[in-house]
Amino acid sequence: MTGKEIITKFKTFFIEKGHVEIPNAPLIPENDPTTLFTSSGMQPLIPYLAGEVHPQGKRFVNVQNVFRGQGALDDIDEVGDNRHLTFFRMIGNWSLGDYFKKEQLPWMFEYITQHLNLDPEKLYVSVFEGYKEIPKDEESINIWNEIFSNVGIDPKERIFPYGPKKNWWSRAGVPENMPVGELGGPDSEIFYDFGAELKIHENSIYKDEKCHINCDCGRYLEISNNVFMQYKKNANGEFDNLPQKNVDHGSGLERFIMATENEPDVFKTSLFYPIIQTIEKQTEKNYLDFTREMRMITGHLSSSVFIISAGVTPSNKEQGYILRRLLRRAIDSFEKLKGRELSPIIESLVNQYKETDPVLVDKFEEIKNTILEEQGKYEHTRKEAIKFIQKKYSLTPTLSHRERIKGEGVGDELMGQTEISADDAFILYSTHGLSPTQIKSLGYVFNDQEFANKMKEHKTLSKTASAGMFKGGLADHSELTVKGHTATHLLQQALRDLFGTQLHQIGSNITSERLRFDFNFDRKLTDEEIEKVEQIVREKIKDSLPVHFEILPIEEAKKVGAIGLFDEKYEKQVKIYFIGGSGKEGDHNAYSKEFCGGPHVNNTSDIKSFKITRQEKIGVGKQRLYAVVQ
Q: Which of 26, 103, 89 is nearest to 58 (CA)?
């Protein structure tokens, strides 16, 4: 069963049960500075899970492109085994205070067994065993008892309780790691059994432990996670009930493919194996002999292709840094196998995804050129790193180094090694972007413990510096951030007042420290123009304009002049914020009318000050302004 077929069956199943399809949110989150990538299907729905009214109703279904591998990048390091991917498609359904456990669990069992045709005998489930004041999920246990009994299976052999490390879900992880205000809840996962006879267990690091559904030996695969989002962490570290009980279900499409094909190695499924075969051709190596390297090439290039299609280019910051790391790890593995050309692999990858993600076909040349350009930059980086060490240690270039930079194979046995200090190794890491493994592949050795100490120091500083940016993954609704959202609307309208309605937003990022606004414009603003923009925004703040929102049909929103691209990502019903007018519903005679999910202040006078702090050019015909509010 292809990915497209699985998706179609899933959407049809839930649409017939009253769900509305919502679009795939951007891989790079809009106005959520707390995370680099959309890492779950629920991420764009956080305000609505917390109780805000969604313009489309209470039941939703969608397929969301997600990326796991930010923060400590643990997920990136996991790529190389038989099932972990950093990029995948999450198919999900949601209930916002509508149905709950007694509907969700039977529905998922029905979909999996009757629409994906998986044998119930191969299914096992886990449930939440409780945590402090949060009780054991007896309701889910009773529901699963009935489900398995109805198909003639003894429930005692199928239902397993686990603690919060396995059966609690929040974007920050276990309850004790959740920041104040974070949403979470118990979950019930469904596992597929590949069978005890599979050879994969012989290579598992868990092979000597007692096998159970969560043991990670490779026999059991989690294919579905039903989260019952009903709690919010308070300032006392305890959990309050949300105003509504929500269902937040997600299933990895790639894992459904594994189960329907009874293939425990995701890289040998119909989705990925054609890519593996292209790598075999380009390297003249066999997958069975170089499994980990080929998995890393496939997994990291897959992620990179989607990140590039979202508009990211390799750099040393934020999303660009993640992309650079992915590409360089893939290139390292490719060069280790003495691969010839990356282009055919990129082409094969896009071809495998084109049925579900046709945007990759449209952006193929951009994707390919970005990857090949980074390959060239990486080669230059290694040359510069070698020059740095040679100059500092008065070394003569060696033949092995020259061969290595020409792509003769990173990781080959070295003709000779040079010992360098941990300080210099760290410079190669922090300045040149080379990992410890990459540094050693160039022929340099250093004290691993000293380097580890420097890395620990660096991570502590980085964690402190980024604490405000990545605080658990909950979209920031602090007072200054809310003011920033409203000020951004005023800023866009002020720019349109001065330069015309052809000017529009192309991106924004708002934190409690500052707001960032990107727009289409072919030059930098003059000092006088910036002053005029500031003056307009300050006047609107001083005028104490009321702010309110209305949920309108998209055609009506267009008629009233609301700002928005109104492309395929918008719903039939949209949320429009009005700044100005009477502030009453139905009064569309406002200063600013703009599509937005919120949140916003009630009146512009809630914003005490507005100041543009700097501007920069970010591309051809693209400008960026930074501003602060109080």
A: 103
Q: What is the pLDDT of residue 417?
A: 77
Average pLDDT over residues 420-430: 87
Question: Regarding beta strands 444-445 and 418-419, do their DSSP bridges make them parallel or antiparallel, or are they unpaired?
Answer: parallel
SS3 of the chain: helix, strand, coil, percent, to 5: 40, 20, 40
Does residue 539 register a pLDDT over 70?
Answer: yes
- Grouping H, G, I as helix, E, B as strand and the rest as coil, residue 613 is strand
Q: Which residue has the higher pLDDT, 467 or 235?
A: 235
Residue among 456, 402, 410 nearest 429 (CA): 456
Over residues 70-117, the pLDDT tens digits come to: 543 445 555 667 777 889 999 999 999 999 999 999 999 999 999 999
DSSP string, 544-591: T-BEEEEEEEHHHHHHTT-B----TTS-SEEEEEEESTT-STT----S
| Residue 158 identity (one-letter amino acid) | R
C-alpha–C-alpha distance, residues 272 and 89, integer Å: 14
Concatenated DSSP letters of 344-403: HHHHHHHHHHTTT-THHHHTHHHHHHHHHHHHHHHHHHHHHHHHHHHHHTTPPP-HHHHH
Q: What pLDDT does residue 33 have? A: 59
For tokens 């294919």, name the residue.
223
Structure tokens at 454: 């420097």
Contact 130, 167 (CB under 8 A): no
Quick one: how far is CA 483 from the chain centroid? 26
Calculate the CA 166 to chain-centre distance. 20
- Residue 575 identity: K
Instruction: For 282-327, write each residue's pLDDT tens digit.
Output: 999 999 999 999 999 999 999 999 999 998 999 877 888 899 989 9
| Per-residue confidence (pLDDT) for residue 76, from 0 to 100 | 58
Pairing of strands 547-553, 505-510: unpaired
pLDDT band at 582 (very low <50, low <70, confident <90, very high): confident
Q: Which one-letter DSSP state was computed for residue 52? A: P
- CA atoms of 97 and 230, how far apart (whole Å): 9
Q: For 210, which DSSP code?
A: P
Q: Which of 251, 252, 250, 244 is nearest to 100 (CA)?
A: 244
- Cα(565)–Cα(551) distance, integer angstroms: 17
Nearest to 36 by CA among 250, 326, 288: 326
Helix spans in 284-363 (H): 291-309, 318-336, 343-353, 359-362
pLDDT over 90, % of the chain: 58
Ordered structural domains, the chain, with CATH:
3-268 (3.30.930.10), 273-445 (no CATH), 479-629 (3.30.980.10)
Cα–Cα distance between 274 and 418 in angstroms, integer? 41
Neighbours of 439 (CB within 10 A): 23
pLDDT of residue 99: 97
- Give the 3-state secondary structure of residue 290: coil
Q: What is the pLDDT of residue 323?
A: 93
The DSSP output letter for 603 is B
Phi and psi of 626, rounded to 5°?
A: -115, 140
Q: Which position has the higher pLDDT, 77 or 471?
A: 77
In Å, what is the CA distance from 384 to each residue of 53, 133, 301? 55, 57, 25
Could you tell me if 51 and 58 are in contact, meaning their C-beta atoms sit under 8 angstroms apart? no
Strand partners, 168: 186
Query: Is 70 exceeded by the pLDDT of residue 433?
Result: yes
Q: What are phi and psi of 597, to 5 degrees?
A: -85, -10
User: What would the two tokens of residue 195 be?
Assistant: 């069978």
pTM, entire model: 0.75
